[in-house]
Amino acid sequence: MHKVSRVFVALMGAALVVGMLAAVAAARVTAPSAKQAAIQACVLLPDTKSSARYELFDRPYLAKAFKAAGIPATINNAQGDPQKQRSQADDCLANGAKVVLLDQLDPASGAAITNAVVKAGGKVIDYDRLVVHSKAAYYVSFDNVKVGVLQGKGLVAALRANGKYSQHPVIAELNGGITDNNAKLFKQGYDSVLNPLYKAGTFKKATAGDQWTDWDPNKGLTIFEQMLARNGNHIDGVLSANDGLAGAVISALKNHGLKPIPVTGQDATPTGVQYIVSGWQAGTVYKSIKVEAAAAAQVAINIIKGTAVKTNGKVSGTPSVLLTPVWITKANYTLLFKDGFVKKGDVCKGTYAQYCK
Ligand code: BGC
């Protein structure tokens, strides 16, 4: 062969190899999205900071429920970033999602995501948090006013038990995130118990003792430190809206060498239960996320299969499935182990083992 044509053949060969490699690479890039294109359900969880629940409970229980039903689904966590949640929603739609389970970060981004899903012909289930007056088809959550009532009554019961009820106890309230409709419903619930007691002079609200925290335990810590300072460390009870905020309160009390006082929580996290058994937290609200995830997944499955959805209420006009929360204290925490919700080994370990029965 002529020298020039030999070089030409070699170049052609190289080009062929490069072309083949490119095709393999392209196949590798397209393969996962081709697979993702088959997703039918998409879950958008809010963050990891405001509660341990999302990665510890919501993700695995939702994954299990969709897997059992044979529904391809993706579960995303926006890490507190509304823009990220929006792009996760867009990815889900691009990959074929028909139903989006939305746990919103704020009402504006929640409504925008909902509009995008509806525009694409999909349906939104508001998961745990309602985007009030959005185009969501359903809402699956707990009776969140009841959650707050349990917290308020739990605080009162703990103040009776430690003898402070009759001594005009000073109470602080650490509310959740003002952009979360649930946080408002919780407050409505606990204030329905506490406000009449403030009004009657039975309880006294601490100075600067009623504040919103964005569900951020670090903010909660700073705010509670300030409350202690403003009240000369004299606070007798804290209505804190979840276990993360309770943990912040407890660490502030410990930092100041103060004794345990009644502190409330929510979510039945292993850390919350450790504080309960060791006497630092009065109680927590157990919302079985196992049941909540299964209920939300069932609504999604019914929508996808075109079968009827069963609801048991309406919240702000949205057809809802509402579940019942349970107050947990030292007296009944083993229910969490019996239900298989929290592992005994995650609570009764290290220095906490001595407190477990
Ligand atoms: C949820 C709580 C959670 C809080 C912070 C609320 O909307 O219902 O379970 O502790 O948000 O994430």
Structure, explained:
46% of the residues are buried. It is globular and about 60 Å long. Strand 3 (99-102), helix 4 and strand 4 form a beta-alpha-beta unit. The protein has 357 residues and is of the alpha/beta class. Helix 3 (82-94) runs parallel beside helix 4 (107-119) and helix 5 (144-161) runs parallel beside helix 6. It is built from twelve helices and twelve strands. Strands 2-1-3-4-5-11-10 form a seven-stranded mixed sheet, with helices on both faces. A three-stranded parallel sheet has the order 7-6-8, with helices on both faces. 49% of the residues lie in helices and 16% in strands. It has helices at residues 3-36, 53-69, 82-94, 107-119, 144-161, 181-199, 217-230, 243-255, 270-277, 289-305, 334-338, 344-347; strands at 41-45, 73-77, 99-102, 123-127, 138-142, 170-175, 204-212, 237-240, 284-286, 313-315, 318-323, 326-328. The chain binds beta-D-glucopyranose. The site of beta-D-glucopyranose has 12 residues, from loops.
Q: Report how far the terminal alpha carbons are from each other.
A: 89 Å
Strand order of the largest sheet: 2-1-3-4-5-11-10
**Structural class by helix and strand composition:** alpha/beta
Q: Major sheet: size, sense and barrel closure?
A: 7 strands, mixed
**Contiguous helical run count:** 12
Name the shape in a single word. Answer: globular
Q: What are the low-pLDDT stretches, counting only 5+ consecutive residues below 50?
A: 1-37
Instruction: Report the β-strand fraction as a percent range.
Output: 15-25%
Ligand inventory reads: beta-D-glucopyranose
H-E string: HEHEHEHEEHEHEHEHHEHEEEHH
| Helicity level | 40-55%
Overall mean confidence score, pLDDT: 92
Q: Write down the Rg.
A: 26 Å
Total number of β-strand segments? 12
